[in-house]
Amino acid sequence: MNKQLKFITRTVFGMFILLFFAVTMIQFVNADELQANSLNTRTIKNSYKIERGSILVDGDPIAYSTPTGDEYRFVRQYKDGSIYAPITGYFSHSQGKTGLESAMNQELSGSGNAQFFTRLERTLNGTSPQGSSVQTTIDPKAQKAAVEALTSQNFEGAVVALEPKTGKILALASTPSYDPAVLASNDDAEIIKNYRKLDADPGKPMTNRAIAGDLYHPGSVYKLVVAAAAIEDGKAKPSSSFANPAQLKLPQSSSVMQNASRTTCGSGSKATLEQAIVMSCNIPIAELAMSMDKNKVPEMARAFGYGQDLSIPIPVTPSVSPEPEDQAQTALASIGQLDVRATPLQVAMVSAGIANEGTVMKPHLVDSVITPDLRVESQYKPEEFSKPISKETASAVAGMMEHGVNTQEGLAQKAGIPGVRVAGKTGTAENGTSADGAELPYTIWFTGFAPVDDPKVAVAVVIANGGGEAYGYEGGSFDLPTAVGKQVMEAVLSE
């Protein structure tokens, strides 16, 4: 009998310990995670009992809450919604939340641990609960210039502009876009109808092409990574020369590589690395990549951020630069084709790192969090992300990029800004053929920074379906994204 009592006592005691542990985990360890879970309807309902904080651009609210007479008490409003949608995302009680509305939900809803004393103080004062506001790093002129440049010709694409020395994101644009307000009403039926319409839109307006989506082949803008890897490893310098055929048969392959011009890289029997960057030639870059260990370029890409998890604080889809299996793959990957894929943010990080003497700063979209009584609750401090290359290597690559803008044969020359030293690189990526054998339109790029002697802005522009047969295999590859990039840089430098 005593054995049975001891067994029951120990069992009950053990169950009590497990219960205590489970309650502790739920109330303390997992509290924030459970509260942030999009399936937690209690959190969603509670969030409508308070006035949600604003999302600010240069102090101006672009997302804010206004009172209503219904059960939700407030409704979310968006100013210039389609311009800032890739930044704000949407906040909806039937479709969840995205963008900063999701990433900064605890601050905006006033439910974070850091706001405990603010909540307590407002309760004691009898003041209605209110969330904190989030000040972004966005430059409104740069953001509007990016969106206007993309939408002027109905481009599908994206723009990212960074401040090289701090990592501040000055512009984050994606088109086509949408108005988050259509998902933020207090009418569930209307929200669901609007969401289904947006979701079925073949233009995928809710996809943030600047930091996510299916990613893009970077094409020739990836040559900056190859050049950085070679110079940093001591395998080349801008004046290093390579064989200059019009065609290159890839090793152990039936594939033949050509330059975009379908001719040699310049008129000589040799072409330098600088010529290859300035004129965006494929063959010298492929020869350079094949002369190195096949891991060197992917390793340099990773040092710049490829393959790494990143939050700005919106989660960013990692760019991809796999290790090639053989020399043929090494050659194709070196010109940003094969399995290499990137976000515009990643391409901008490469240019920003080159501009910032080899140091890549961690990109960030939030500058500060401000309490309802206008106290700064938290302030973002610039943080180093990586240092992939030396100051000397960065200077060498920057010099070649600048020549791509200020020399007659440079493909990026239309990025030139009078009185400003500009560095730039164009890119064109082929996307294969469709099921019926027709050539798919190209993806075209521009990346660069300015001023070269004191960088204030680094930019990356991608335009999907912007080059190829419809553009006579030229022009679109150089002019369209370069013009967009120039407008964004001018917007930043005009202040």
SSE blueprint and pairings:
Layout: H1 2-29, H2 31-36, H3 41-47, E1 55-57, E2 60-67, E3 74-78, H4 81-88, E4 91-92, E5 96-97, H5 99-103, H6 105-109, H7 116-124, E6 133-136, H8 140-151, E7 156-162, E8 169-175, H9 188-200, H10 223-232, E9 241-243, E10 247-249, E11 256-258, E12 270-272, H11 273-278, H12 283-290, H13 296-304, E13 310-311, E14 315-316, H14 327-334, H15 344-355, E15 360-361, E16 366-370, E17 376-379, E18 384-386, H16 391-406, E19 423-429, E20 442-450, E21 457-467, H17 479-493
Molecular structure report:
There is one protein chain. This protein has helices at 2-29, 31-36, 41-47, 81-88, 99-103, 105-109, 116-124, 140-151, 188-200, 223-232, 273-278, 283-290, 296-304, 327-334, 344-355, 391-406, 479-493; strands at 55-57, 60-67, 74-78, 91-92, 96-97, 133-136, 156-162, 169-175, 241-243, 247-249, 256-258, 270-272, 310-311, 315-316, 360-361, 366-370, 376-379, 384-386, 423-429, 442-450, 457-467. The chain is an alpha+beta fold and 495 residues long. Among the domains are: 2-36; 219-367 and 382-493, Beta-lactamase (3-Layer(aba) Sandwich). Helix 8 (140-151) packs antiparallel against helix 17 and helix 10 packs across helix 13 (296-304). The longest helix is centred in the N-terminal third of the chain and has 28 residues, at 2-29. The radius of gyration is 26 Å and the shape is globular.
